[in-house]
Design the sequence.
């Protein structure tokens, strides 16, 4: 008799079934060499976005710790630590869906715009520019996940992940803006005009 | 902020109509509550940032109610212009006795969270892709309202009436203010309203 808990085993089986279904669904065409197609391409894009956020916040943390922008800002440093942990968890959620579908997990940042984002963080000459870079990144992530909620063709863990993660990215953006300026950047609706399409995924 | 559960009588309307009507009823409740709050003396004569948040959030919730009712109309259902009955009486009572910004911000943080959780849940449940995306969009905005209110609450708790005006001012903020607005890695749905809670009967 296996020592594996029954519930874990059942979840694993369900994950494989759902993953195969996601893979079979129509979506934007993937590059010939890509392991991701259909809804799973949207999932892989989301995982890459989360990895990018982790990299970006680590670069911000390094800059703050090095004192590049003057005295430490404890509230901003605390925000960066917490947001990084959130994005690590989000990446794990998206990658669990890929793993359940027997697809490779996304461990890097295979995104066409990644170098531009990292360059803007490196080039920031003050805290406001630094915050603006990650604020834009969070807004793009929230919009991308919001679009995914409507575009994913199979109801299941990917829709749940997108629906429950999008508000968190949006909160990151709102808190960043309010924290440093006292001015709200929140608008009536989270649009999808700035959402990344799966064409931005280079894997 | 608790309320009695809705009648168990299930509506005959399709799922998307029911959840859109319930979401509209919660938005109507938010509009009524913020409108009442804006007239409270300690708001009228208090922090400009709090007044601005109340005015801005009122406008957002008005837009959300209109958007949900437009979608209900498109889906062939009746528009919902009443406030959510489960919470309306309790919220009105609380507002009538609220005498300070901290309590008021606490009430609205709770209300925004309930609406955000409800919209998140409906984004998962709704059958139409466009409706799902609409719920996801509004859920994120309510979550953002909540994030800002949580920051305001923490500022009030640390004796500050308002947030920093610049990055230089932000140096003086305690670390707790930095994490106050982002308490969760994944948005919850356990407190979402029942799908027929605000259905038009």
Sequence:
């Amino acid at each position: 008799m296996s020592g594996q808990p029954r519930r874990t085993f059942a979840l694993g089986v369900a994950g494989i079934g759902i993953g195969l279904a996601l893979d079979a669904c129509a979506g934007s065409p993937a590059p010939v060499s890509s392991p991701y197609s259909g809804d799973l391409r949207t999932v892989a894009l989301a995982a890459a976005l989360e990895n990018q956020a982790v990299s970006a916040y680590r670069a911000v943390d390094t800059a703050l710790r090095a004192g590049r922008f003057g005295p430490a800002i404890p509230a901003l440093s605390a925000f960066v630590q917490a947001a990084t942990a959130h994005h690590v968890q989000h990446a794990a959620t998206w990658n669990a869906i890929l793993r359940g579908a027997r697809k490779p997990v996304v461990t890097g940042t295979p995104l066409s715009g990644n170098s531009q984002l990292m360059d803007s963080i490196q080039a920031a000459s003050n805290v406001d520019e630094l915050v603006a870079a990650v604020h834009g990144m969070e807004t793009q992530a929230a919009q991308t996940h919001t679009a995914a909620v409507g575009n994913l063709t199979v109801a299941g863990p990917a829709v749940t992940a997108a629906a429950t993660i999008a508000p968190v990215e949006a909160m990151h953006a709102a808190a960043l803006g309010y924290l440093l300026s006292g001015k709200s950047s929140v608008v009536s609706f989270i649009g999808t005009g700035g959402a990344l399409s799966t064409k931005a995924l280079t894997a | 902020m608790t309320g009695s559960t809705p009648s168990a009588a299930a509506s005959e309307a399709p799922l998307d109509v029911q959840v859109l009507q319930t979401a509209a009823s919660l938005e109507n409740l938010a509009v009524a509550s913020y409108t009442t709050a804006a007239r409270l003396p300690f708001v009228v004569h208090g922090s400009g940032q709090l007044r601005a948040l109340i005015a801005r959030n009122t406008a957002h919730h008005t837009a959300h109610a209109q958007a949900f009712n437009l979608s209900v109309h498109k889906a062939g259902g009746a528009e919902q212009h009443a406030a959510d009955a489960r919470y309306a009486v309790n919220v009105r009572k609380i507002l009538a006795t609220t005498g300070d910004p901290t309590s008021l911000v606490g009430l609205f943080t709770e209300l925004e969270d309930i609406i955000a959780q409800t919209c998140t849940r409906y984004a998962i449940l709704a059958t139409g892709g466009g409706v799902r995306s609409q719920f996801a969009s509004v859920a994120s905005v309510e979550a953002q309202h909540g994030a800002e209110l949580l920051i305001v609450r923490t500022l009030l708790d640390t004796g500050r009436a308002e947030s920093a005006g610049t990055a230089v001012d932000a140096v003086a903020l305690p670390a707790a203010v930095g994490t106050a607005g982002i308490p969760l890695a994944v948005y919850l749905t356990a407190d979402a309203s029942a799908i027929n809670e605000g259905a038009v009967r």
